[in-house]
Amino acid sequence: MDKIGYKIDFAGNGIEAVEAVKIKKYDLIFMDMQMPEMDGLEATGEIRNLDITQPIIIALTANAMLDDKNLCLEAGMNDFIAKPLRFERLVEILEKYSVQLNKVNANRN
Questions:
Q1: How far is CA 109 from CA 22, 66, 70, 105, in A?
Q2: What sign has the CA pseudo-torsion 12, 4, 48, 34?
Q3: pLDDT at site 99
Q4: 10 CB contacts (<8 Å, ≥6 apart)?
Q5: HSE-up of 54 (CA within 13 Å, CB side)?
Q6: How far apart are CA 60 and CA 33, in angstroms?
Q7: Dist CA 40 CA 26 (whole Å)
Q8: What is the pLDDT of residues 85-102, one digit of tens each?
Q9: Of 48, 59, 69, 99, which residue is the least packed, with the fewest Cβ within 10 Å?
Q10: Residue 56's closest CA among 72, 70, 71, 68?
Q11: CA distances from 36 to 7, 8, 13, 104, 107 (A)
């Protein structure tokens, strides 16, 4: 991701993802739906309940059914990407939300 101008952190499970968000501000999170210890739906719910500047959360899942997408959106995620993740789709999502993030960051300054 550094090659396209983004810095990334990794969390090994949902608990680590929630703890990371408590410590550091993230603009965008790619949330795996099938993480151990706490899945992506539960981790997203925990993050959405935190008193922080809320990140954009994109679901990553091998389950590409409409019901799965709806579950992700109902849990508070902003978007949904089916696995396997293609580089072109990743860039498309980053471009889509970078415009939104740039507007939010401009309003903060």
A1: 22, 38, 34, 7
A2: negative
A3: 74
A4: none
A5: 15
A6: 6
A7: 16
A8: 888 888 888 888 987 766
A9: 99
A10: 72
A11: 24, 20, 5, 32, 37
Task: Please report where in the chains the tokens 């508070």 appear, as a residue.
Answer: 76
Rounded distance, CA 68 to CA 43, Å?
A: 16
16's tokens: 């680590």
Q: What is the DSSP-derived secondary structure letter of residue 33?
A: T
Alpha-carbon distance 83 to 59, whole Å?
Answer: 10
Whose tokens are 């992506």? That residue is 40
Output the pTM of the full model: 0.85
* Alpha helices (runs of H) in the chain, residue ranges in sequence order: 14-23, 40-48, 66-74, 87-108
For 32, the token pair is 């795996």
Q: Residues 56-66: pLDDT tens digits?
A: 999 998 876 77
Question: How would residue 2 be classed by pLDDT, with cut points 50, 70 and 90?
Answer: low
> Which tokens hold the place of 75?
């849990």
- Model pLDDT, residue 107: 56
